[in-house]
Amino acid sequence: MKFKISQQLQNIIIEHIEHSENGIAVLDGDDVLIFCNPKFISMFGLQGHDLNNCNLDELLSWMYSQGVGIDIGDISLQEWLVQVHSQYRSAEFRSFELKLKDGRWLLMTEQVNSTGEVVLVGNDISNIKKIENELYAVQEELERQAWTDELTGLYNRRHFMYRLDGEYHRAMRHARPATLVILDLDFFKKINDQYGHHAGDEVLKNFSALLRANLRKEDVCGRLGGEEFVILLPDTTEEESLNILGRIRAALMQQDMDSIAPAFEYTFSAGVMALKQGKSCGLDAWMKMADQALYHAKKTGRNKDVLYADITEEGSS
Predict the structure, then answer these.
(1) Which of 60, 137, 188, 283 makes the best surface tag, with the fewest CB within 10 Å?
(2) How far apart are CA 97 and CA 308, in angstroms?
(3) Which backbone phi and psi does 24 adopt, to 5 degrees?
(4) What are the extents of the domains in the chain?
(5) Which reaction equations make up its catalytic activity (predicted)?
């Protein structure tokens, strides 16, 4: 249904557009700016530019040269213009978000009329984006808490087992090596009894930081509980895993733990189980074998690394 628009109604509409909180602009069929309201000018920092007979590319190029308006990141002007024209006039109606140089966000709508004019409308959604970002940060923190051990910042048992399951099946599928190491701090109960639980917590945090500092980016480390830790070493053989553990031990010897007590030191024992390439053993069995190797390390003197393969050879000899 079409209404007959009186001069009075036209004046009302024009006044509304002029004072609108939305930025509004119209470009003709040749993409020359034929109208924009004051809000559009202030949104894009166009106060210092002569907008008469200014086409879209000139407008965008001027904003780029003045460092105002749209934030395009670190790409060049030409790359940006190519991106703009790949989407501009691509549909009768589209909406998209823009980030401005001053940090504000706009929701833009682009309407192509039947006669070829383009109507652009910008709505400031900065507050909405702020709330979205805050909610996203809260969600990320809740997720982090769900899979992180609170004291040490390492993965908790549940998330580590999830990662271990994925790596186990990847290693089986591609016939790749992978090594599992379970570590236990030696005589940890004595540390708690002699120096207090606060000192014990400091040791746990110190050891966790030591592991993070001496493992590779692709390695996965977690705390199983108490003084027991676990490391997943993808694409790593037994020999390579022992070299990594040797590096951790060397770093541990250099630790200054005088904050707990003068000349204080601690050690750890480790059980190592390496998957044979393409040979399936099952996830639970993999954990159990590494745990058996750890038990052997503690039973035979502690402060050592024991391969599961070595104790099975001992048992068969």
Answers:
(1) 137
(2) 57
(3) -130, 135
(4) 7-125, 148-316
(5) 2 GTP = 3',3'-c-di-GMP + 2 diphosphate
**pLDDT tens-digit map of 169-218:** 999 999 999 999 999 999 999 999 999 999 999 999 999 999 999 999 99
Task: Answer yes or no: are the C-beta atoms of 113 and 119 closer than 8 Å.
Answer: yes
Candidate list 110, 167, 227, 238, residue with the active-site label: 227
- Which residue is listed with tokens 């591609």? 174
Cα pseudo-dihedral 54, 58, 60, 61, rounded to 10: -150
* CATH class given for the domain over 7-125: alpha beta
pLDDT at residue 282 greater than cutoff 80 = yes
Q: Write down the pTM of the prediction.
A: 0.65
Strand 23-27 versus strand 33-36 pairing type: antiparallel
Measured between alpha carbons, how far is residue 214 from residues 23, 114, 146, 243 in Å?
54, 65, 25, 11
- Identity of the residue numbered 223: R
CATH of domain 148-316: 3.30.70.270
Residue 66 has a CB neighbour count (10 Å cut-off) of 13
More confident residue, 50 or 119: 119
